[in-house]
Structure formats: structure tokens, C-alpha cells
Amino acid sequence: MKTEQIGKPSNRVDGRAKVTGEAKYAAEFNAPNLAYGFVLNSAIARGTIKSIDTSKALALDGVLEVFTHENRPGYVWGDKNYQDEDSPPGSPFRPLYKSEIQFSMQPIALVVAETFELARYAATLVEVVYEPDEFESDFNANMEKAYKPKKYKSTPPQDPRGKPEEALAEAAVKIEQTYAHPSEHHNPMEMHASTVVWEGDGRITVYDKIQGVQNSQKYLTNAFGLDEAHVRVISPFVGGAFGSGLRPQYQLFLAVLAALQLKRSVRVVLTRQQMFSFGHRPKTVQRFAIGASEDGKLQAIQQDVFAETSKFEDYSEDVVIWPGVLYKCDNVKLSHKLVGLDVYTPLDMRAPGGTTGIYAMECAMDEMAYKLGMDPLEFRLKNYAEKDQNKDKLFSSKELKECYRQGAEKFGWSKRNPEPRSMKEGHNLVGWGMAHGAWEAKQQEAEAKATLTPDGKLTVGSATADIGTGTYTAMTQIAADTVGLPLENVTFQLGDSSLPKSPLEGGSWTVSSVGSAVKAVCDKVREKLLDLAQQLENSPVANVGLDEVTFADGKISLNTDPSKTVSILDALKQNGGQAIEEKVTSKPVEGQEKFSPYAHSATFVEVKVDEDLGTVKVTRVVSAIAGGRIINPKTARSQILGGMVWGIGAALEEETVMDNNLGRFINHDLDKYHVPVNADVHDMEVIFVEEKDEHVNPIGAKGLGEIGIVSVAPAIANAVFHATGKRIRELPITLDKLL
Amino acid sequence: MRPFTFTRVKDVATAVQEVTGQQNAKFIAGGTNLLDLMKIDVMTPQHLVDITHIALKTIEENKEGGLRLGALATNAATAYHALVETRYPLLSHAILAGATGQLRNMATDGGNLLQRTRCYYFYDTDTPCNKREPGSGCSAIKGYNRDLAILGTSEHCIATHPSDMAVALAALDAKVNVTGKDGDRVIPILEFHRLPGDKPHIDTNLKEDEIITSIDLPAKGFADHYTYIKLRDRASYAFALVSVAIGLEMEGNTVKEARIALGGVAHKPWRLPQAEALLQGKEATKANFTKVAEAYLEGAKGYGDNDFKIELARRAMVRALEQALSMEAAS
Prior knowledge:
Chain A: Residues 20-134 form the Aldehyde oxidase/xanthine dehydrogenase a/b hammerhead domain. Chain A: This is Xanthine dehydrogenase, molybdenum binding subunit apoprotein. The complex is a heterodimer. In chain A, helix 6 (213-224) links the parallel strand 9 and strand 10. Chain A is an alpha+beta fold. The radius of gyration of chain A is 27 Å and the shape is globular. The N and C termini of chain A lie far apart (56 Å). In chain A, strands 3-5-1-11-8-9-10 form a 7-stranded mixed β-sheet. Chain B is of the alpha+beta class. Among the domains of chain B are: 5-50, Uridine Diphospho-n-acetylenolpyruvylglucosamine Reductase, domain 2 (2-Layer Sandwich); 226-326, Enolase-like, domain 1 (2-Layer Sandwich). Chain B has helices spanning 12-19, 34-39, 75-79, 82-87, 89-96, 101-106, 109-113, 165-172, 189-192, 273-276, 286-296, 308-326, and strands at residues 5-8, 25-28, 47-50, 59-61, 67-70, 175-180, 183-188, 211-217, 226-231, 242-251, 254-263, 270-271. Chain B has a 5-stranded antiparallel β-sheet. In chain B, strands 9-10-11-12 form a 4-stranded antiparallel β-sheet, with helices on both faces. Classes of the chains: A alpha+beta, B alpha+beta. The A-B interface holds A 41, 43, 117, 120-121, 124, 271, 273, 425-428, 608, 612-615, 617, 652-653, 657, 659, 661-662, 664, 666-669, 671-672, 674, 676-680, 734-736, 739 and B 1-3, 39-41, 118, 120-121, 123-124, 126-127, 139, 142-144, 146-147, 231, 233-239, 241, 308, 311-312, 315-316, 318-319, 331.
């Protein structure tokens, strides 16, 4: 592929719409006669609703209805009707299904009124009497009840490789430590919201905050027994999601229920507090036992994972794949158990399993490097994995060594004094730490369509999402590049269930999956264009194949003589005033399965820790990324920076705290749940190392959604150790832990 | 939000009249805390009296050679006022350590003193909280209490007062001028906020019908030796785990007068003049600073998650005193 548009740091094609407010989000679409729903949540963690009295709420002028388990219409309540594309094994939560309370803040009623404020007020008048039951919310207290799920949502832990017990017993140098990662909530800037427009005759158009409109559509048709043709889901802009929009959330169900019952348009927006009432990153505790030879070669790795799930679904994520991907070691033993609590089911959150798994592994490896008296980077080089030992396959490409080299050089790693507490500036202890990471570069099946009208305007569409990641821009660039048109002549459409099928926007696979479909459909447009161009009289491109011409600047030119050209507009004139229309299904390319595709990262961090007061400041971060071909360095850098900032939050600030007296996440607003602010973010540098990958997918890109975050928190934790000599094995590293 | 009536007044007398005898009436100025609390049904006033049109925004020198801050002067206007910056830099720094630029543009000096606690449970109407609902119990004492008080607590409440500004005002010995149906009175800042005792739902000694009209700063501003240290879980836009306001008057290396106020540790800004007196006439040494810090924390009590605050407060006081002495900017 040529690089007319791909690789250019183009501004976001939707940037203007976003800064001017023209870009509309789910809660901003209006409809005539719109009613507003407000959700009432359970005060208890487990038990039953003995009674729910809605009479005072209903008595208010303008309150239309209060939906509860008592008056909701009968639906088919089978598990299958409520499962979605991202459901873990189990029995999904069904809003207003019955009087049983399964978790604190469970939605128990929807008050619908003429205005939002009235609905919110009326919700305070609903009187609920509970019959509370004993509940289990304490992760640590329930670890001994941890179980192996019948079916893993994630990659199941592999059978042991080699002879891990013996190798560990015989290893000259050993470490054995436990690391804890807390529960975290996604908290995208935009709250979850659905606006359901009643179109009459049982037809609805739903504006939903979601990472896959077709997932919402399918969910609604299943849950409400609706005809697919009667439900259209639209989501042109998403104000961040980080995984919270992978599953349809309860506001969608409730809004649709109300709209269908009231035969009127309804909007339900969750409050910030309610953003803590559904999926979250599971609390994860990991025991690592590692053995190495005196010269620093890994002999054995044992990783035992305990991770939170709900009592009704077995959520699991890829926590145990990382030793096999990132370290060469012949003797490995893994286990992955779940701790079932009376909470809502955890949910994929940026780099699910990687953020937790790589954090613990990279801290453990740092401990091992110290025990060996080796430089942490040298230790990683010594145990470099040339192939993915989980799958026993070579990597499709792996420029991690180049990440080490460029990252270390930029950071000045070679000047590091390995001794903890060896660097000091005034009251501050200075520490340098590093870690590396990986994220799988999957390609999913995706469809795309393209229409090139006689005026030379190309519209390409696929039902994917742009959750702030830059999908609009990247796809526009791929399409423009392929057909040889300027960006402004290309429009990419997404977020509409009527568009060709797309996988969920997650897993760092959008560019590789949808991007490949966009390229494929545009390749078909090219083919057609060349065909048309060759129909011209005395065509300068007659009798040549597609590989003998170049599409650029709105022209098709001959490779052997670029002065010989046909403009795309002229070629289009041969189509009898018709547009060119194409549609494709793009599947992972053949031969791809012979390789293991991963993006890699290496992160170097400097922290300053106040010796007396324990405050930690991350003064410098350098992340070097091997992510295959970079479609747009500008949006790519933003994505990595976002991951790095989140890494600071994960390392130092973020934690949803469970009150075990109440069985309730108690810091449920942004005053008390801390994410980094500008003042926490200092020098940040992103390096994209050159990485050519001919196996991963037709465009050679690996996806950057998750790789930016995975190695940052462990690098910070390792830097804090280097600064202070204290190993804090429980995130977040708040100042009290360093006093 | 619950329905309420709303009226706008233009003078103090009418403001007082509007709330006198009215059940559950509240003044509203910046609304930066009250509106949030109304939205989540924690505060449910039936009558709001908008006082923003009363002429109480002025900041000017008072008769005693100090400065008078109009109750409706915004936090931003106060922090960046030339006389505050030069004569009371401690106050300026404390205000700027709180909230965000946007909030400080809205928040008023009078309202700042009347902020409600940020205790997790106070904000969650599904949990017991004696401050929100007297007699319902305290969820924090045996619950999650990392942010909560270590001094002056009661068995009914361990909430903290969230203001940074009030901590500086406590160190500066400010006076709060109020007007009520029975006329004007002056409340010294240390008597303005109260301890929870068995009435944690009452934050201050301001009467229901009283309005803050201004805050007087005494002439002495400790501009030569001051500091405000705020320790929190991120570098900005977070409430203090522990904060320390210091004003020192020095004669060579001898402390002539020391002012120390702590924030984030109690139901009110915490100042102990008798402990401060330990420094009077003493050499400014780390040992002497440590002695005072220990005196300040005598009787401090942790509740589990917040135990660390005792040691943190001790260290923060020593650091703050050193910083105020040397006037070296904190890194």
C-alpha cells in the first residue's frame, strides 16, 4: 500500500464537530414529546424487595409511570434473551425481572415524567421496604472460596509447561510475592444514556452510548421480542467508554421498556453516581513464584490469580497469558480462580487482564532482577521471548528490543544508579523504573460498504464506533489512501445498526478489522475505477493491471510513466451517471494463524517521592511502542498518552472502595474516586518504533487502544521502589503506604 | 430535585427577613456545594434566597488596619487581590490550593466557610449518617474512614470540614461578621465552626436567621514567614488528607509568635493556641517544631483507615514550620 494518507498526522476529521458541539451524543438527540426516566437503585446489597410503593410519586402532576418488577410487562426472561456479544458465561442481569436484589445499587425502578427534574424528584418519593439477606462483598475474606469456572470467558490457563514445581524448587534464586490490583470503574466523561425515539407502529430509533450499535440492536430484539427491522440503534459519537460500552447497560433496557409501554419517546441518562452501579475492573490478587539461575535465566514461573466476579456471571479476563508472551521460560504453572461476590459482574476495562496481569508480573520480575543484582532491562533482554510460548508460535513481528533501545536512550536509563534510595533532590527521593508490556493484535471479521458518486465523493461505512479513539479519522485516511482521493472527499460513517456488520469497538482490533474491511471495499472501488478508466478512448492506462497504476491526488497514473493519467472524475463519467457501489466482508487473512500477533511496549518512568510525606510525583514517562504500522501518528500518540495518564491513575490514585458493612462501593463519585488531573501529568514522551508486519492483517496495523496503558503502572511501582526501597504490592500507591 | 421557592434579595435586612421563621430556608450565593447536595437529595431546602445581588463583594482595608473581605467576594477575587497577595499570602495560597479555577470563580468567601463535609456517607442517602439524618447512626466510624477526622471527633460523627480557606483564616485569627434578626455580632473564626458532639448535623454556630456579611482579617498577616501545605491524593482538585497553615513572626532565629492551623483532621479548622505558645520565645529548631506538632496531636484518634493521618499530620506540621521559616518554595 502506498502512503499518500496513511501515516500522516492528520487532524481529526470530526474535530470541528466536537469542539463546536455539533457532534451529538446519545443524551443530546431530541424527539417531540420526549419523556424522561430516572432510575432508582437498591439501597441494599442482597435480599428482596418486600414492597415498593409508588403512589406518592405517581400522584405528582407530570409523572407518567413508575416501572418496577411488579408492573413491568411480561417478557421472555430466558438467559439467552439477555446475553450480548460480550457476556461472560452465566445468567445475565435482567432489570426489573423480580423482587430479588443481587447487588447494591441494582436498578429497581424507573420513574418516567415530563421533565428530568420531576422524574428525579418523584424517585425520592418511591418507598421501598427491603428484606435484607446476608451478603458477601469482602474479596479477601472470600478468597478461600475461590473456584475454577466451568467455562472461562478469557483464555483458560494452560496446562503446566515443563516441570514447574521441580524447577522452582531447584532454582538458585527465588521470589514469591502477592500483588493486589483494586476494583476500578470506567468513568468515561459521558455518562451512559439512551434516547429512544418512538416512531409509531412499534418501531423505535435508539440513540445509545455503546461500543457496538449492533450489539444493542440484537440485545433489544432478543429481550423485547422485537423485529430487527423495527429497531435501529445509532451512536455517532461516544464520549469515552473504555469498555463500559461493550455491553448494553441497564439504562438502555429501561428506556426502551418505557418507550414501548408508553408509546412515546423516552430518554434515560445515568448520573455519575450510577456510573458505579454496573461493570468494573475486577479486583485481582496474584501470587507470583519465580525461580531463576544465578546468571539471571528464568527457570520457573508460577502465577496464581484470584479475581472478582459476580454471583451470576463468571467474568474472567486474560490475566495469565503474559508470562508465555513476554518471558522465555520452560517451566510455567498457571491458575486462574474466581471469587464470587454480591456485586455486579465485572466488565472489560481498557486492557482487561493486561492492566492487572502485566502489573503484577512486571513488579515481580523487577523484584527478581533486584534479587539477582541485575539491571531490570538487562534481565528482560536475557529472558526475551522469541516466540509466544502459550501458542508455540512465532510472533507476526516483535520490535520490543527496539522499544527497549529507543526508550532507554531517550530516558537516559544507562545513567541509572541501581541502588534504591541512591538519588535525592532536597526532600525528594528520585526513582527510575521500567516495565514492558504487550497486547494482542487480533483481527475480527468485519463488513464495509463504499459508494463513490459521479462527483468524486466517496462514502464508506461500517457499523463500528468511535469512542474518542479516532476511528472516523483513521478509516477516512485508509479509504482516501486506497482510492487516491483527498481526505475532504471521503466520508466515513459508523455508529448505525443499518450499516454493514462490524465487531464491537474494543480489544484494540478496530483498525485491523474494520480498517481491513475499508481497505478491501476500497480496493474493489479501485478495480472498478481502473476498469472504467480503461474504457476511455485512447485510455492512457489501457491494458495494465492494478499493480501497474497508482491512485493518488484524484488520479490514476501509470507507474512506468506518471505523466500518463486519468482523473477519477473522468473515469467515473464512464459509469453512465451511476455511482460505484461495493460491499465486502473481510475475514482474517489466510496464514495469519501461523503467527502470534502482539503489539509491544517498553515504559521508563521517573518518580519523585517526598521522603517524609510520601507524595509521589511522576515527573517523566517515556513509552516506546511497537504497534505495527501507524495510520495516524497524531491520534495514535493521543491514544498512547491517554493510556499513560491512566497508568498514572492506576498506579497512584484509582480505586473503588468496597464498604463491607454495606456491600456497597462507597466512593461513588468523582470527588472521591480519583483520576489524574493536569497537575499530575508532567513530561510524557511517546515513541513509535518502526515495525513492519506482513502477517498481522492487510494494513499491517496492530491497534493501540490498550498497549499504551499496560506497562505504565508497573514501571511507576518499580520506580517508587527504586526511589524509596519500599515495595508497595497493592495499588494504588497512596502516600499513606509510603509513610 | 425537590421543588423549592426562590427569591432574590438586594440587601442584608431583606435577606434576614426572608429566612426568619421560614422552615428550611437557605441562602444561595455561588451554589458550588448547595446545588450539588440538592441534586442528590442530601440538602432539601424549601426556600432559596439568592443573595448574590447584595453589595457585599468589596475587599477593603478596615478600621483596625486589617482587611475586610465582603462575604460575596469570590474565592478567586480574594486570592488574587493585591492586598491579600501582599499582606496575607497565606490566605491567597490556601484558597488557591482548593477546588478549581472554575469553582473559585463562583464560590464566595462566606459560602466557603459554610461548605458541608465531604464524608462518603454524608453524600449517599442510602446509608446512615448522623450529620445528614440525626439519629440514623454513623457509617464511617466502623466503615471506610480514610479521609475522616482524627481530632475532636465524637461517637456520633467523624466528619471533617473541607475548606482550605478556613484553615488559613483560623491561623490568621479572622473574625466573621454576621447579621441576624437580633442584630449584628462578631464570631471569632475559632468559634465559628463547632465540633460534632451529639449534634453533628449542626456545622457552625451561625444561627438559622443569620447571614455572614464579611470576614475581617487582623492587621498581622505573617507575610514574611508563612506556608500552606496541603497533602492529598492527587496534585490538584482533591480535598486535604491533612493541610497545615503556618504563620511565624521571627526575631532572628527566635520565634516571637507562631500560628498553626490544621485542616482535614477535624470537624473544624484545628488550632491550639496553648500548643503554639510552646514555640514562643524558642529557637526555631526541628526539635522544637516536633514538640509543638506532638502537642497538637495529643489525643488524636484514628479509626482504622485514617490512622496514618496522625503521623502524616505530625510530619506535615514539622515540614510546614521549616518551610515557613526558610520561605523556600515547596517542590
